[in-house]
Amino acid sequence: MKKRLTITVLVLLSLCxxxxxxxAFPKAVGYINDFANVIDNKxxxxxxxxxxxxxxxxxxxxxxxxxxxxxxxTAREYRTLLFxxxxxxxxxxxxxxxxxxxxxxxxxxxxGYGLEGILPDGKVGAILDQFAVPYFRQDKYGAxxxxxxxxxxxxxxxxxxxxxxKSSSADWFKTFIIFLAIxxxxxxxxxxxxxxxxxxRSGTGRRTIYVSPRVGGGRGGFGGGSSGGGFGGFGGGxxxGGGAGRKF
Length: 248
Fold this sequence. Notes:
- This protein is of the alpha/beta class.
- It contains six helices and five strands, in the order H-E-H-E-H-E-E-H-H-H-E.
- It has helices spanning 2-23, 41-58, 75-86, 121-136, 141-156, 168-192; strands at residues 32-34, 61-67, 95-101, 106-112, 239-247.
- Strands 1-2-3-4-5 form a five-stranded mixed β-sheet.
- Helix 4 (121-136) runs antiparallel to helix 5.
- The longest helix has 25 residues, at 168-192.
- Mean pLDDT is 77; it is low at 1-22 and 198-229.
């Protein structure tokens, strides 16, 4: 009798624990999953447009998720486990998860295998520092997620995206001094040039711009948007644990 009771208790405990783990991973409702209810309607609509465009034009599944808590996991653990659970990304593993956890005030980003070359950990962290954290510290979660998503989209589309340096004022001053020195040198050289000779002109000083490689074009097999008829799921992508996180 005692043995049966022990087995029953263990089974019930196991079921309770498995229920807790299952509850920790909600079912996706689309590309925007605001389970913490912190995104305003305007920002939510803009996020939907941005994620739909990335899916249709570049074949990238960018998912936004807000949670009140992710206990018993850490935010870092949760982002990787949920990415695999939901299978974000398609056959080329072109998935991106932006996770916002409210009780610990953290934002975490998980990058799929196929995007790690375009979005290395350092760049992801820089984007969070520049576009997410300042908004979140003012409790502007919707706006912060929109700006962060725009920044990631710019990189994924191969557009110029240069984060301004904290020492930008000093850099501009140094640049001004360099150009001034060049102008003085060119002016002196032009005075020495005989009539009819080549006129001295300074170069235009082109700025070097980092351009990310384009991700492959749109693919079939995605689950569709969150509007109408329910959500069919993601494309089965995987992640190698790349990404970054920040507290705010």
